[in-house]
């Protein structure tokens, strides 16, 4: 048997003595007490040397006769009389089953007999081969079971660790595991297994744990190695001598978290002395200032007043160059332009660390064209995530010659997703007299109370078939909350609930930003199918759906916004709730009140919420407009508030999905978006392409955002549009013939 095995066995046996009294060294090997412990019986035993009481739970199991007449051989290490250190378990070969073969696989073991000084050392624990005898600080004790050898592996009883070594031993009834804990290390053993866990990491033992006479036996080396207990084996004296002296613990942290070349480093020590105080320390690789980038290992050890040194503690440091300011740079395609001539700018900015998309850009006096002659200086400031900035300026000259007027230039060159101020009265344009029909899709609009002041149910509805959810709320509960949608199967048969499209945004302190992003994500899910899923609910079962809603807690004043198209083959009850972020929604649902609407915003259930508009005549020969959300050409949906039974009108038709098909749009026509009810921020999908309704913010009633331009031929245009929460309706889609380009 290897030295480690013998040492661990000794520790276990000695500690296992339950309620024994010390006897003389000449006394019989018969245990002073062999108390049988079964199941979850708990014994509390005093440590005579430390006065500390430990509690043990012992697993219940069958008895296995593991007694052997052979002497236990040591687990060997190279070099006579050397201390066997944990971590060398595999260096000495297999455990030997006989003291007559002290070298196991040809290795040497110690042969020196113990001196009287050794026997009386309070930091040493001595176990004897095939014996219950243990000597701790010169006093003899007896364990319930002796060290035993099975198939060349030395075993010790778990309880032997408790008294003498001061470990905590317990039994986990749920996992059926015996636990050993010491100084933050946890070992878990199972009966009849050769695997054990060290702080959750599985390791393999040389033997299989077992029970005998209601005593749990484990391989000695497994515990000794995991708990780093040094020991020696004395084959002549047929004993294992363990060093129980507690070592100090070395630890340190480094500040700052990012270490730069040439900047000072602060080392903060957090060492602990097992006995007395820390009297000495040793560093390897420490530098107060690192002069070159790279990876460095710093190692720290401490010595306490008992003379014991800690295990070395190492930290790997990544030293990097100090953050450098980004480089701001751009070029124009030429140095001089006519008034109304398109200016093309190419950006060449870069940073030493951050990718380009993480830099912050601030442009000053940048324009697609200028309409007054003279020099124009364009300025760019680029800032990295570290807060460092640089600014670059470039001047172009504008001649007195005009290429395009400002109005004509805007119609021809302002990119899709950008905006400009138009000239003239948009309301004087002819309206397209379109017809429409509505497709079946139940709209569940949860938008009142928009600002939620207390926990509760903000919407409850039962629906089936095609349905669309629009959920938009603000947290005003004065604490962190989460929102959930709970689906309940109210049928006697299973229900399949399918999600087709979903767009979620937030939590955000800006309502318009959340509403805009939710529409973008909703359209994106149509293109890539990324949100398609299904769930089955058994009769009476409740599940959370649209879980994006509750992925992140909402802070005070934050907004969430969600669009989702779903389908159910049978009626399902849906509850939209706002509760404390630590609460379980399924547990508290039945205790929640239904909240009142706020009297300002709309909530309700509306049938047939997908509006299909098709226009077959030619569009764009003259300036025209198509009005939506005006309750005239586009009448509001009529529905019901299911919580109170009132008839409701969906003002602005929020939540309605418009499918607009324009069969014939004339060549060279600009299609743009103009809000009429106030500022607007959102997205549209034009011919399968998602287009922002102004990429950098909101569009006002005096502006128009570019959505699309037809080419030199008549074109069919398909537009998907749904109102973004937080924006204002009605709106106009504008159709404007563009001027000819200058060749």
Task: Give a written overview of the molecule.
- The chain contains seven helices and 51 strands.
- Strands 32, 33, 34, 35, 36, 37, 38, 39 and 40 form a nine-stranded mixed β-sheet that branches.
- A hairpin with a 4-residue loop joins strand 43 (638-641) and strand 44 (646-649).
- 39% of the residues are buried.
| SS class | mainly beta
Mean pLDDT: 83
> Given the structure, what is the number of helices?
7
Question: Which bin fits the share of residues in helices?
Answer: under 10%
**Oligomeric composition of the shown chains:** single chain
Ends apart, CA distance between termini: 96 Å
The shape, in one word, is elongated
Reported for the largest beta sheet, the result is: 9 strands, mixed
Proportion of residues in β-strands: 35-45%
Give unreliable regions as ranges: 1-119
Structure described in brief:
This protein has 743 residues and is mainly β.
Give the secondary structure arrangement, pairings included:
Layout: H1 3-16, E1 42-46, E2 53-57, H2 116-119, E3 124-128, E4 133-136, E5 139-142, E6 148-150, E7 153-157, H3 160-165, E8 168-172, E9 177-182, E10 185-189, E11 195-198, E12 201-204, E13 210-212, E14 215-219, H4 220-227, E15 231-234, E16 239-243, E17 252-255, E18 259-260, E19 266-269, E20 278-284, E21 294-304, E22 313-320, E23 330-332, E24 336-339, E25 345-347, E26 360-364, E27 374-383, E28 389-402, H5 406-413, E29 419-421, E30 430-431, E31 435-439, E32 442-446, E33 451-452, E34 456-475, E35 481-489, E36 495-508, H6 511-528, E37 533-537, E38 542-545, E39 559-580, H7 585-588, E40 604-606, E41 610-619, E42 624-628, E43 638-641, E44 646-649, E45 657-665, E46 669-675, E47 682-686, E48 689-693, E49 703-709, E50 715-721, E51 731-737
Parallel strand pairs: 18-22, 24-28, 30-42, 32-34, 33-34, 41-45
Antiparallel strand pairs: 1-2, 3-4, 3-16, 4-5, 6-7, 7-14, 8-9, 9-10, 10-11, 11-12, 13-14, 15-16, 17-19, 20-21, 21-22, 23-25, 26-27, 27-28, 29-49, 31-41, 32-40, 34-39, 35-38, 35-39, 36-37, 36-39, 42-51, 43-44, 45-50, 46-49, 46-51, 47-48, 47-50
Helix pairs in contact: 1-4
